[in-house]
Amino acid sequence: MASPSQPRLIVFDLDGTLIDSSVDLCNSINAALAHFNKPPLPEPVIASYIGDGASMLVRRALGDPEGDVHDEEYVAEVLTYFLDYYRIHKLDFTYLYPGVLASLEAIRAAWPATLMAVLTNKPVNPSRDICAHFGLTPFFFQNYGGNSFHTKKPDPHGLLTLIAEASAITGQTISPAETLMVGDSHVDILTARNAGARSIGCTFGLAPQSLATTPPDHLAHTPTDWLTVLGIDPSA
């Protein structure tokens, strides 16, 4: 596919796109399961549950893949334990994917007028804390999480909100067609489609198999490939 023209807004997912957080999320889920006398789950299984927010991650770990469990009080207790544990352990093993920082710097240098933001289904406070820890915060004008709005991705509300906010900052209307969503799962690709935006799917993330059934406009096998797709020379 041809490279997209210069976007005026680039929105990044967090888990599986900017950071590999799978070990800390898996450890936190298994800590919660152990606390409630449930058997642990293998890391690949838990990793396959990531992407639709903390509540759905917990529900799936409890054996409720579609989120129809009726004991909401029990789910709430497990979710609270999971979030409390994760808040403490969210940076034990989490790391930036190699090339993320250099690629963000290259985008900023090549296109200083292009705004960037984070839109994740992870709760917003851990998302912001993680970005601050890894020095990502200065690149983004906004960082929204799964509890920032009444809906989560793939509902387009969060992405459309970012487009409206970016338009207000620039003083010029930014259209969805001038917006690029970068993520590692079908959730991110559907978010882009639902908003009318373009997408890059990251095959190095936590849910690359879902990109086969929901193909993005472009694929990136490493964060440096974002630059290739965008037509930015990484050595410039």
UniProtKB/TrEMBL annotation:
Any one GO molecular-function label of the UniProt entry: phosphoglycolate phosphatase activity
EC main group: hydrolase
GO CC term (a single one): cytosol
The keyword Hydrolase belongs to this UniProt entry's keyword annotation: yes
Record InterPro entries: HAD-like_hydrolase_sf, HAD-like_sf, HAD_2, HAD_sf, PGP-like_dom2
Alphabetical UniProt keywords: Hydrolase
Keyword ATP-binding: no
A GO biological process held by the record: DNA repair
Pathway(s) this gene product operates in, as recorded in its UniProt entry: Organic acid metabolism; glycolate biosynthesis; glycolate from 2-phosphoglycolate: step 1/1
Domain of life: Bacteria
Reaction catalysed by this enzyme: 2-phosphoglycolate + H2O = glycolate + phosphate
EC number: 3.1.3.18
Sequence similarity: Belongs to the HAD-like hydrolase superfamily. CbbY/CbbZ/Gph/YieH family.
Full protein name: phosphoglycolate phosphatase
